Amino acid sequence: MLQLLIHQWKESQRSTFWQKSLIVNILLGILGIYLLLNILVVGYFADNIIREIYKRGDVVVIYTGFLFYYFAFDLILRFLVQKLPILSIQPYLTLPIKKSTLLHYPLVKSIASFLNVVALLLILPFFIKVICVTYTISFCLAWIITVVSFIVTNNFLNFSIKKYFSKRPSIILILSPVIGTLIYLDISKTILISHYFTTSLFYIAESKWLYIIPIIVSVLAYYIGYSILKRNAYIEDRQTGLRRNSGTFSFLSRYGETGLLMGIELKMIFRNQRPKSMLFIGLIYLGYGYLFYHNRSYNSDLILVFFGILMTSIFAIIYGQFSFSWEASFFDYYLANKISPSGYIRSKYLLFAVSSTLSYLVTLPYAFLNPKIVFINTAMLFYNIGISSVFILFFSTYNATRIDLGRSQFMNYQGLSYVQYLNMIPVMVFPVLIQLMFNWYANPQYGIYLIGLLGLIGILFNKYLVQLVTHQFKRRRYTMATDFKHF
User: Fold this and answer.
1) Which residue among 33, 86, 322, 402 has its CA within the 20 to 30 Å range from the CA of 216?
2) With contact defined as beta carbons under 8 Å apart, do 202 and 64 qualify?
3) Domain-embedded: residue 464
4) Burial of 412 by CB count in 10 Å (0-12 exposed, 13-18 middle, 19+ buried)?
5) Per the domain annotation, does 21 fall within a domain?
6) What is the extent of the structural domain holding 331?
7) Which stretches in the chain have pLDDT values below 70?
8) What pLDDT, on the 0 to 100 scale, is given for residue 165?
9) Quick one: 457 and 360 in the same domain?
């Protein structure tokens, strides 16, 4: 096990990415240390913060209730940003090393992950400062063992969840509303889930032996993760699985070259970590609409227009701004084969249109909170399909920064450039300025009509707008291909 850790350290130090991005890695390291120090400060002064917000109530009880939300968010965050070290053991599979050692190694190594350090820095200062001086030794030991068991369980459970969702990514569309509903029920005090969590944790801490249950659960999560790694630790099985899944989105091939290219891009999204993380982040952002729309102070047309743009174009904003950088590793394939530039650009345009429409449909239930949301979001949908998508594609031709699809999204700044700021002008700033002008000088509803009308005009003339982007792409494609070769 120690030898494997030494090999991993040498691999990271000798990689070309580390050597070429040494200054960036140093800056990110400083930023990480600064972030950890801030988390440590928050953990130490958590009792003061709770007393400032809640004038009455037991600080430990309130803090324990917050842990329910923390562990739920922690599990989602791990799913999005924590990279599974499965591929790193493949070079050892053909060597005379025990398979069990190779399988235990990534699980044990994950214990030292950044998110686990964050959890300990957030919880231990409060535990030492408040709980240890308030409760008995037996209660303190049972409480910290239970909480640490939850952290470990989330860590190992992430292995199982990621593997399951990699095979059935559409399940996230069902799970996201379920999680949002549970949080809503707790916040609205319809079902006090956090209260039950706190009561259960205190009951375990006050008993003599019940803290063994969370320990057993964490061991079970470890065993499940080990079993999943064991079933997927054969190179030949991985290759067979890739061949078996090659027919995914094959129905799109019936729509000609454009449909075939859309299918290729969708496969790229669901088979690689960073674009898939972007997709899931976008789905989670759709749930933030409840926080905005539920607040009555956000009912002005200007704010609803801003949120409407965000809700219906979240995929284009997060994913679309790297439209060509995602394909940097195989961009030459498009140039060397008989693929028409117009079909290539149109496939991306239609992908944005479909994703915006799906986002719009997901946000329709928010109309129960405010009926104006349907009217405003419909206008913003037209604008995003007709105008924003075209501008994003146009400006993306200037973003020729290579992106490693396999790297985690967490603290990853690959692909970022000035283009992202240019994209914000037509996507977010321009419609907000239109609405602001009508709020000052005319009927605010006319601003929404104008934004929607501009979008409809863009949709009607999308053929000419796509041709404009195609011409820009043809002018820039060889420059982009050259830049993509520089990692």
Assistant:
1) 86
2) yes
3) yes
4) middle
5) no
6) 255-484
7) 1-25, 27-28, 80-81, 83-94, 99, 163-177, 179-180, 232-251, 253, 288, 290-291, 294-299, 404-423, 486-487
8) 63
9) yes
113 token code pair: 């992950």
Distance of CA 16 to the CA centre of its chain: 27
Cβ(434)–Cβ(452) under 8 Å?
A: no
| DSSP per residue, 97-162 | S-HHHHHHHHHHHGGG-HHHHHHHHHHHHHIIIIITTTS-HHHHHHHHHHHHHHHHHHHHHHHHHH
The pLDDT, as a whole number, for residue 151 is 92
CA–CA separation, 287 and 181 (whole Å): 10
Q: Are residues 213 and 286 in the same domain?
A: no
CB 83 within 8 A of CB 407: yes
**Alpha carbon separation from 473 to 68, 342, 426, 484 (Å, rounded):** 49, 9, 19, 15
Question: Would you state the pLDDT for residue 416?
Answer: 55
Quick one: 363 and 418 in the same domain? yes
Residue 99 carries which side chain, given as an amino acid letter?
Answer: K
- Domain match, 274 and 186 both: no
Is position 471 within any domain?
yes
Same domain, 225 and 275: no
Question: Do 152 and 121 fall into the same domain?
Answer: yes
Q: What is the pLDDT of residue 32?
A: 76
Q: Closest by alpha carbon to 178, among 72, 79, 278?
A: 72
Q: Are residues 169 and 52 in the same domain?
A: yes
